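Reply to dn_fold:

You asked what the input looked like. This is it:
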Amino acid sequence: MIKKEHSRAANPAIQAPLDFAFDPLIRVLKAARETSSGERLAIALERESGGMARYDLTLPSDWPAETVFRLAERVVKFLLWSAGGWRLMLAGPDWLCRRLQCEYNEQGKRAFDADLMKKVYNRSMTVEILTLVKMPQAADAAIAAGGHLDGYRLGFDLGASDFKICAVDHGKVVFSDEFPWDPKNQPDPEYHYGRLNEGLRKAASFMPRVDAIGGSTAGVVVANRIMVASLFRAVPPGQYAQAHDLFNRLQQEWQVPVEVANDGDVTA
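and this is what came back:
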């Protein structure tokens, strides 16, 4: 939370009834963008396959240091959760970069965030302080997905109480059904694999063959591996590697291309 007396923005049209000093972060960020003077904090996040997110934040010179830090910390957290990344790079005022570096490590106040990114990317999250000239630029590539109507295809969507599967014959749906399951209470990854495979086989029986399988799921999917998901909340840490490879195992068994993405990404 950032107090409105430090944001240099006009009072909100509607005040929060439980905290009259509360100011939504977006207003504080807008006020920072409109400042005419101040240093710059450059933030970059590297994720899988060399993907890079980059955001530059103007730091108003007349704001208290604590307000500047709180704004910067919230922006870093938002970027981390919206873009993801195992490597956080910072360039800007030394005091600010070092404080952020202390916050975002496995022993800092943001240890939860650092630990989550470690689970997502299978490597410890690092925070580096660089100069502005050495900061990487944004490097993201658009990924074409969907629109393939040729051949015989299976599609699935994994939910918490059921999963849905459809079979598509050259763009025409020939089978569609929902399969109830209880993944969140099942500690054995073989349960998840077996139930999904059972549903896929039923759908496949309505076509002469299967050319490809596509799916969506809640959770974080990296390189076709489901790294963090509530579907596996009961799976013990010692068996989670087995759960990670659910979709790659399907590809090996079915011997066809299998592509899976986060359900929000699929919707977008």
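The mean pLDDT is 89.
Hope that clears it up.
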